[in-house]
Design a protein that fits this description.
The complex is a heterodimer of chains A (232) and B (218). With 232 residues, chain A is mainly α. Helix content of chain A is 77%, strand content 0%. Classes of the chains: A mainly alpha (232), B mainly alpha (218). Chain B: Its main location: membrane.
């Protein structure tokens, strides 16, 4: 009696898990890059448009943030073909990731933009900066520096959420885990192993994002001060 | 036979929302108790206790909810529990919630000025009394808006337990879609119901946040 842990059959399939982990990294990497870009662009667009024209961006943000990622994924993968847009599982997953992260990033960067005080903009304009220069250097850069810690957490959450893509049979880490499970019948061992891989990925990602933040907004500069203020 | 997506299908999906709500409430209660312990431990005077709580938070926040679900599901059955899937689902959601609520509430506790601790200690209050009469009442004010905001995450993440066969909103949508083959309508409806649950909570969180900041300058 008593359960015996047997990790050997799981480790024997580590090549499969590795492939899954690579796809998880790919999905996360591309998704985060474009999702963050989408968010920054939409937050900028929203900041530049008159209040009456902000509702399309606001509606997008609210719709995405108040529905589950899984349901968004199902609509894109199963729903879009019925209106003639046919995507592979990977394409659907990537679209869902970008749309989802795009909405969260928009909201986070928007908060950063709104935290820039009016007097800063007036000061920039009085220094004969063009409107674009003011927007670029006085509004956007400090806004992103200030919300970098929040953005980083959202990126890590998104990486973890890519596990949901296994629901539409994208062969990322969770899906390959299910494959190894059905081959070896060592369910608990498989999921412990894969959980540890996710945990490792999350830790490495947190570290890398902190380094990236330190490089983009170096300590001692004005932007660096904003970044560290926010994380406290 | 392909069924139409009509009133009875819609009602089936709508009724399944009760499981979504039940799971959310259970996770909030169980996860709240566990999260409270984590938050207090995180603010403990004993370094090892603090480290343990920090480790718990860091770990839960680094694991996908899906993995927490599978580990609970297979772990509990290995431990000899013969339970309905809803049980494993609630346990995993509670563990997930404890990691995030613990961190939110730690922040709230630590945002109470240290002079408050000093002053109450000078009045010969015990640690428990300090928490009960001085720190928690102030921390609670700060903790409420982000906690309400987290409930939205919780509602949305209950959709993941559909994979172990709990017929909540997402699973009900899948079942109906398999019978009607009208994914756009079906999942659109599911999304709308989630939205109707989550949006008011989001608005409430934002209002509470505004209220809390109203009395402050800068």
């Amino acid at each position: 009696m008593g359960f015996q842990f047997q990790f050997a059959p799981v480790f024997a399939r580590s090549d499969v898990l590795l492939e899954g982990a690579l796809l998880t990294l790919q999905l996360s990497g591309i998704g985060i890059l474009f999702g963050a870009l989408l968010g920054i662009l939409l937050a900028m667009l929203r900041g530049l448009s008159p209040p009456a024209l902000r509702w399309p961006v606001d509606a997008y943000v609210e719709l995405v943030r108040n529905t589950p990622f899984l349901v968004q994924l199902l609509i894109i993968f199963f729903g879009l073909p019925s209106i003639g847009v046919r995507l592979t599982a990977e394409q659907a997953a990537l679209s869902a990731i970008i749309l989802n992260l795009g909405a969260y990033s928009t909201e986070i960067v928007r908060a950063g933009i709104e935290s820039v005080h009016r007097s800063q903009i007036e000061a920039g304009l009085s220094l004969a900066m063009t409107r674009w220069q003011v927007f670029r250097y006085v509004v956007i850069a400090p806004a992103i520096a200030r919300v970098w810690p929040a953005l980083s957490s959202q990126f890590v959450l998104m990486m973890l959420s890519t596990s949901v893509c296994s629901f539409i049979s994208v062969q990322e880490l969770s899906a390959t885990a299910a494959n190894v499970e059905s081959d070896t019948f060592r369910s608990f061992e498989v999921y412990i192993t894969v959980t540890l891989i996710y945990l490792g990925l999350a830790l490495v990602m947190r570290g890398l994002l902190a380094v990236l933040g330190a490089v983009m907004f170096p300590k001692g500069s004005g932007l660096g001060r904003l970044r560290t203020q926010a994380s406290r | 036979m392909i069924r139409e997506f009509s009133q009875s299908e819609f009602l089936f999906i709508l009724a399944s929302a009760r499981w979504t709500l039940l799971l959310t409430v259970l996770a909030l209660l169980l996860g709240g108790v566990l999260g409270f312990v984590v938050a207090i431990a995180r603010a403990s005077r004993l370094a090892p206790v603090r480290a343990l709580a920090a480790g718990w938070i860091g770990m839960i926040q680094g694991i996908p909810v899906l993995m927490l679900l599978f580990l609970s599901y297979y772990g509990l059955s290995l431990a000899g529990f013969d339970m309905p899937p809803v049980f494993a689902a609630s346990v995993s959601m509670a563990i997930y919630a404890s990691g995030y609520l613990g961190e939110i509430w730690r922040g709230a506790i630590q945002s109470v000025a240290w002079q408050q601790w000093e002053a109450s200690a000078a009045l010969a209050m015990s640690r428990a009394q300090q928490y009960r009469y001085v720190v928690l009442p102030q921390a609670m004010r700060i903790a409420v808006p982000p906690t309400v905001g987290f409930i939205v995450q919780l509602v949305k993440n209950t959709s993941i337990v559909s994979i172990i066969g709990v017929v909540e909103l997402a699973r009900a949508g899948n079942l109906i879609n398999n019978a009607t083959f009208q994914p756009f309508k079906v999942f659109g409806t599911v999304a709308l119901i989630y939205f109707m649950i989550c949006w008011p909570i989001s608005l409430l969180a934002r209002r509470l946040e505004g209220k809390l900041n109203a009395g402050r300058t800068g």
